[in-house]
Amino acid sequence: MGAPHDVVIIGSGFGGIGMAIRLVQEGFGDVVVLEKAADLGGTWRDNTYPGAACDVPSHLYSFSFERKTDWSRRFPPQEEILDYLRDCAREYGIMPLIRFGTEVTEARFDEGAGLWHVATSRGDTLSARVLVSACGQLNRPVLPDIPGRETFTGASFHSARWDHGAALDGRRVAIVGTGASAIQIIPEIAARARHLTVFQRSAPYVIDKPDRIYRGWEKALLRSVPGLHELSRARIYALYESRALGFIKYPKLMDLLSRRFRANMRDQIADPALRATLTPDYPMGCKRILISSDYYPALAEPHVDLVADPIERVTPSGVRTADGRDHEADVIVYATGFAASGFVAPMKITGRDGRELNEEWREGALAHLGITVSGFPNLFLLYGPYTNLGHNSIIYMLESQIRYVLGCLHAMRDAGLDWIEVRPDAQDAFGREMRERLRSTVWDSGCTSWYMTEDGKVVNNWPGFTFAYRRATRRPDPRHFRARRTANP
């Protein structure tokens, strides 16, 4: 097993890479990053589908300590984001710390030794004083439970596992789903396919995407004029942060975005029947608001069909809907989202007294500030429950969490502690506060979404401003924790 490491991080997306960089900068030198894939990048490695891009402006979608001034466009494409993460890992010396092709299968806390024992798919076990899960919320693709799915004779795959060898040009393509990935994929495939059939279960709200290429002189100014990039970043942050008012406090403010949605559709969809099918039947913001300027024009193309009838089954030659129609297809793409509320699944994480984390979370995940869990000492989550956003950059939230974790580790080191654990009363108080605050948000207004558990409990989203979360995580409160010195219990 070898000597214990200071910190083991699970995952090498934005959370894992950012955490590793800051740990090394703060003097925690013995850090290991375990990554199940052959490359870093998390969701930006996995989602290589045509049209993949971010829906947060590029100037805000970067670490505060490594700001990029030469983004190619206002909303960054997938490849550019992935390259940015690779550049960060190389520049800050993180690449040698990453063990690729190493999936964590189980982690168990040894209370006597004050260590986490981490088992991997390679058959080895590592020990660590601290375990950080940076798996994210959107890392496990979900394929729909549709009868006959395995009988289809053509190519079929999930959007997050894109088959780049599948022939699409001049073919009949079916896309199941109309969520955030689908609205980026559909215009790209509509331009290549002979016929495209889109199966919609629930219509999304789609507003226009103010995207454009950055000119050379703009990038030169951002690079050379002190403070200009910071000003652009601050302006975008303030604009997006203001939208939180509509999500969390004054849902009527969503009417402003709703008017933008309706104007966008009216300008781009001439057919009243198609407009009716594309109009959601739930309050705006209850599900993720999507941005695209080419989604509706693609659906209006004569060789594109939007089908809102429920899918009955997949056949060897296509998709059959509940009205008895068979929709022939050569390729089926499942843009059907992710298992977002499991957080650490399918890993088995066992804390004190044999507590298993997935079992503890059977009725909904809960972690104090989305970061620490009672009964699981020295375990820290990045992008855990109640930390997702509907209005701003998740990297801002991740940096808040990273700072909080560093605060915990410095406090442990300064006090000579072997482990700390959040008190159950502090965690429960945080959970009650979240549930109370979420009741007045648009996310709890009656629709179903990936923000919820199967029984309708919202566990993913932060019901507040991001600056309020940063203030709440400014430093760990010693009153929220209990601690132990293993050598002198």
UniProtKB/TrEMBL annotation:
UniProt name for this protein: Flavin-containing monooxygenase
Gene Ontology MF terms in the entry: monooxygenase activity
InterPro entries found in the cross-reference section: FAD-bind_Monooxygenase_sf, FAD/NAD-bd_sf, Flavin_mOase-like
One Pfam family recorded for the sequence: FMO-like
EC number: 1.14.13.-
Family: Belongs to the FAD-binding monooxygenase family.
Coiled-coil regions listed in the entry: none
Keywords: FAD, Flavoprotein, Monooxygenase, Oxidoreductase
Top EC class of this enzyme: oxidoreductase
Lineage: Bacteria, Bacillati, Actinomycetota, Actinomycetes, Streptosporangiales
Entries under Gene3D superfamilies matching the protein: FAD/NAD(P)-binding domain
